[in-house]
Design brief:
heterodimer, A: 378 residues, alpha/beta, Peroxisomal Thiolase, Chain A, domain 1, two-stranded antiparallel ribbon, 14 helices, 11 strands, B: 173 residues, 5-stranded antiparallel beta sheet, 3-stranded antiparallel beta sheet, 1 helix, 8% helix, 34% strand
Chain lengths: 378, 173
């Protein structure tokens, strides 16, 4: 099969509230990705933007960033969902042979709208929205289901928060790197039982971009390629009431597809680093299981073993993860950017020594309705 | 109502009710300076691209053609010409006030002298003989200005005409 690589990555800083316009954030991320790739906008054959109209407060939100995205006189297509799905779609457009290079850019300004209202808007308007359900209320339901099924505790969730916020201290892009104790997390303000403040990701502003190329297109850039070894995506039921919220079958399907392509039989042994979408602390444990890093019901055990900490056998979220900065839609693409930096050895203070194979994961929809997985390697 | 005997049911709809989604849109430095200058000095500024020298009114941060950041603001005239226009006959709720704007009214995209792009606004006229591409217009400002685009009341037609398409060598795209 034809191969596709990530040739460059760019991220703005992720902050609680940025004064920049969408255009300025997107331009900064795109310029950073092109500079990282060692190329210029003329090397890009087509552009893929990632945005959501509810978050942007405008319809066809993708079109308004076309100048900054470098899409003038180019085809521009859009993914309305997490950036990891943008990267997967971009890789497909590149593999299809229509384009040798694809720029994928995602942006979000969570600070300009109201998270509760916007995420309430993703639910069914007749039977569910009137209950006031939003992303965090849905997550609390899922966290409770997971606790009931596996016996995981609030302390287990807190340990994820402690690990990822600590890792965030070494990532200059995030705004919530901090040293916390388990007690700090447990005593933080109740948001939606069993979730406390430090179990929940912040809502952040920012943008991220990646440059993709097939083997022919890769020659345009000076950077060394980080090859996509495998990828997969899968959706579960939209309606939460049709799902076992503690079951990760969509992630299992997505990751097994990616592992199959990448020739990975034992991900815990064969992967060197994982960047996953921990919008809430408990999600990391659930996703360990979905990704096959832990057996069903054993996510907390893997966490407590220390294997996923920096210095462990398989560090997870050395960047600080989504708990340390959560630009919605951008976060999955940021995971991919981090995975690329890791396999290239360019992750600075958060580098996992000798990382050769990394996994990036993104989710879309309430409680991780859809999952996208990319395995990347040098 | 549902009548079980006949199987007839009144069909129902649910509305979104009184919920509204407020947003706060950042203008960036250039946009803020543009509106502040209208508010304080009744003057227009445009952003000049360092690559192609095109002047964008209203200003934006990135020139899409050159994929370059724009930092420089330059003054442009408060007079210009119509490059596209329409006389609106259907009632439309003004998003600023929630009140339907009386019809008919004139609206146009106006290229100010010294600018390369066209700014949309209202016209003071619904005269079909005068509201035409190429017609010359001048900005009329509100007495009380608050830093919004509606600090411009409208553009007034002035009795001068120029050949459609303009004479500054750029076409508006």
């Amino acid at each position: 099969m034809e191969k596709v690589a990530v040739m460059g990555v760019g991220q703005t800083s992720f902050e609680r509230e940025k004064d920049d316009t969408f255009e300025e954030m997107v331009f900064e991320a795109v310029q950073a990705a092109l500079s990282d790739a060692g190329g210029k906008i003329g090397d890009i054959d087509n552009v893929l933007t990632v945005s959501n109209d509810f978050w942007d407060g405008r319809t066809i939100s993708s079109m308004s960033v076309m100048y900054a995205a470098g899409a003038w006189d180019k085809d521009v297509s859009t993914v309305e969902g997490d950036g990891i799905f943008g990267a997967i779609y971009g890789a497909m457009r590149t593999l299809a042979g229509s384009f040798d290079t694809t720029l994928v850019v995602a942006h979000a300004k969570g600070s300009m709208g109201r998270m509760n209202l916007i995420t309430n808007g993703m639910f069914d308007p007749i039977y569910q929205r009137p209950l006031g359900i939003d992303a965090t209320m849905a997550a609390a339901l899922q966290a409770r289901c997971y606790m009931e099924r596996t016996g995981a505790t609030e302390e287990d969730f807190a340990s994820v928060s402690v690990k990822n916020h600590r890792n965030g201290c070494r990532n200059p892009h995030v705004h919530l790197g901090m040293e916390l104790s388990i007690e700090d997390v447990l005593r933080s303000r109740k948001i939606s039982d069993p979730l406390k403040l430090y179990d929940c990701s912040p809502i952040s502003d920012g943008a991220a971009a990646v440059v993709l190329a097939n083997e022919r297109g890769a020659k345009r850039f000076a950077q060394k390629p980080a090859w996509i070894r495998g990828m997969g995506h899968c959706s579960d039921s939209y309606t939460l009431g049709y799902r076992d919220l503690a079951n990760t079958r969509a992630l299992q399907a997505a990751s097994r597809k990616a592992y199959g392509m990448a020739g990975i039989a034992d991900p815990l042994k064969e992967l060197d680093v994982v960047e996953l979408y921990d919008a809430y602390s408990y999600m990391e444990l659930l996703w360990y299981e979905g990704l096959g890093l832990a057996a069903e019901g054993r996510g907390a055990e893997l966490m407590m073993s220390g294997a996923t900490c920096m210095g462990g056998d398989l560090p997870v979220n050395p960047s600080g993860g989504v708990l340390s900065a959560h630009p919605v839609l951008v976060a999955g693409l940021a995971r991919l950017a981090e995975a690329v930096l890791q396999v290239r050895g360019d992750a600075g203070e958060r580098q996992v020594a000798g990382a050769k194979t990394a996994l990036a994961h993104g989710i879309n929809g309430a409680c991780g309705q859809a999952h996208g997985v990319i395995v990347i390697g040098t | 109502m549902a009548d079980r005997k006949t199987g007839q049911t009144e069909l129902l709809y649910v509305t979104s009710g009184d919920m509204y989604q407020p947003y706060s849109y950042s203008l960036g430095r250039l946009g803020a300076e543009f509106l502040n200058t209208i508010k304080e000095e009744k003057r227009f500024l445009g952003a000049r691209c360092p690559g192609c020298n095109r002047v964008y009114v209203p200003p934006r941060s990135v020139c899409g053609r050159c994929h370059m950041k724009m930092e420089e603001l330059v003054p442009v005239s408060d007079e210009g010409e119509i490059v596209a226009c329409a006389i609106i006959e259907f009632g439309f709720v003004d998003p600023n006030t929630g009140i339907a704007r009386p019809v008919p009214y004139g609206t146009a995209f106006i290229r100010l002298d010294g600018a390369d792009t066209a700014l949309p606004h209202f016209l003071d006229s619904v005269d079909r003989e005068k509201v035409k591409v190429g017609a010359r217009v001048k900005a009329v400002f509100e007495e009380t200005r608050t830093g919004k685009i509606m600090d411009i009341k409208h553009f007034a037609l002035i009795d001068q005409y120029r050949r459609p398409g303009g004479s500054n060598g750029f076409s508006v795209e």
